Recover the amino acids of this structure.
């Protein structure tokens, strides 16, 4: 007997998580903008870079939704870089935030994305 | 905003406990025709429900709030299991949206202050909202309107939620925070005569010791170096040798000096003592008069003293890292309305000096 299965929804779930991640970066970029107005001129570069990262992540989310293999690869690479950065910051004695929100956004979210975008089943073929 | 309120901690435990239970419930029912996004939303709603129900016990003295937690929690738990129901999506969207707006109303009206448990719950709910709305391949019902709602509601609600939390934290910092990101050392409320005398002695000794540095060339010779852009109203000049040697509140070896960037060159505003370790505040001879402060969750950039504040979603701009600065104590050598040991110097004072 052939059992009916729901189509894989992993790309759609990954889309939602990537959308959330892009929003977090857009918010980070926008929240730093007032400091540029306060005289921190170099911060302008970081604001623009962060907004572009947010926008790029949003585009990656759309690519993942379209089952693009390139978008999937880039999204995984982005999450690996995020996880590596977070691991370094967690290990250094610099007072990196270890609260539940920080762990959710900087650890759980990238891990969930790597799991959702892993290469078994064929949602990206 | 970055703390866990003592009466909210139980909610966090309840939410974590609900995670395996919700996964087990899904495994038990084996709903093969239900998309994974729906099951993900079910798990997140079960967690949010458990967090709300967990908070009831610590809010029993607030009847209305406790009742709302019960209603909210039960509604989330019920909807987390009713994903096969025809009206599950509209009901879930309505519940999540109402809960988010209800929470924001509580914050705006001052009935609650944002903390880590509340923020984590809101992020879970916003993610659940996205998972409820996102159509999967093959689904045709309300596809276009669901995409439209997802594209507008999730970004909008995320921005509104984070903005309200951020503005509230800046506008209404709690008693221990001088302003967002700066935590004050806990001291007695009113200075004793002995503490007043000790504070005056520290002030006089520091002013005498840093008097030569009114000439910034002398400060430069002594090893103080400016950090950050000279376009800022004032700049901290740090002495790395004094930082590394770990002098503790030594008036002759302050870790930093603060200069106003006036049209006629740097003008000394005061000194800064800084502890070497981030874990302990320094000695506090003047009690409340000489309370140290510590900047937590600041986004430190490679450009020295240029920084921003970490967002409520624990994110910094690209290239900046979240750090906690070692505890510090300023001694202002110019007349500062906030006092000679205030966390900040009054902007008007700096502006007046900057304009010469």
């Amino acid at each position: 007997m052939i059992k009916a299965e729901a189509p894989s929804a992993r790309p759609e779930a990954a889309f939602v998580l990537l959308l959330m991640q892009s929003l977090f970066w857009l918010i980070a970029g926008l929240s730093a903008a007032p400091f540029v107005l306060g005289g921190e001129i170099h911060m302008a570069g970081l604001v623009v870079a962060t907004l572009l990262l947010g926008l790029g992540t949003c585009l990656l989310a759309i690519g993942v939704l379209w089952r693009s293999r390139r978008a999937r690869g880039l999204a995984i690479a982005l999450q690996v870089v995020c996880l590596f950065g977070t691991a370094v910051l967690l290990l250094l004695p610099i007072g990196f935030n270890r609260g539940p929100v920080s762990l959710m956004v900087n650890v759980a979210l990238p891990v969930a994305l790597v799991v959702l975008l892993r290469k078994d089943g064929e949602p990206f073929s | 905003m970055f703390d866990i309120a003592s009466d909210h901690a139980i909610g966090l435990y309840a939410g974590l406990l609900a995670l395996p239970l919700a996964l087990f419930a899904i495994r038990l029912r084996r709903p093969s025709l239900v998309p994974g996004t729906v099951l993900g939303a079910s798990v997140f709603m079960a967690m949010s429900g458990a967090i709300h129900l967990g908070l009831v016990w610590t809010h029993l003295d607030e009847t209305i709030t406790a009742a709302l937690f019960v209603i909210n929690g039960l509604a989330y738990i019920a909807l987390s299991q009713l994903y096969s129901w025809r009206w599950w999506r509209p009901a879930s969207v309505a519940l999540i949206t109402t809960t988010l707006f209800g929470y924001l109303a509580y914050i705006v009206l001052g009935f609650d202050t944002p903390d880590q448990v509340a923020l984590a719950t809101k992020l879970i709910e916003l993610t659940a909202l996205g998972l409820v709305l996102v159509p999967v391949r093959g689904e045709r019902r309300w596809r276009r309107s669901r995409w439209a709602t997802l594209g507008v509601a999730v970004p909008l609600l995320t921005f509104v939620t984070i903005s309200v939390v951020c503005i509230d934290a800046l506008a209404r910092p709690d008693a221990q925070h001088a302003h967002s990101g700066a935590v004050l050392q806990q001291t007695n409320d009113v200075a004793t005569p002995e503490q007043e005398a000790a504070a005056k002695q520290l002030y006089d000794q520091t002013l005498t010791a840093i008097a030569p540095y009114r000439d910034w060339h002398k400060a430069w010779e002594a090893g103080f170096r400016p950090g950050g852009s000279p376009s800022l109203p004032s700049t901290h000049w740090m002495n790395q040798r004094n930082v590394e040697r770990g002098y503790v509140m030594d008036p002759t070896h302050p870790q930093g000096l603060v200069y106003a960037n006036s049209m006629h060159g740097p003008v000394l505003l005061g000194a800064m003592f800084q502890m070497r370790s981030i874990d302990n505040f320094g000695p506090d001879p003047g009690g409340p008069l000489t309370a140290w402060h510590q900047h937590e969750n600041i986004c430190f950039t490679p450009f020295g003293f240029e920084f921003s504040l970490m967002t409520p979603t624990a994110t910094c701009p690209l290239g900046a890292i979240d750090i906690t600065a070692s505890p510090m104590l300023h001694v202002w050598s110019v007349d500062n309305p906030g006092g000679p040991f205030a966390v900040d110097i009054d902007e008007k004072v700096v502006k007046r000096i900057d304009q010469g």
In short: The mean pLDDT of chain A is 91. Chain A touches chain B through 49 residues (CB under 8 Å). The helical segments of chain A are 10-37, 43-65, 69-91, 100-116.
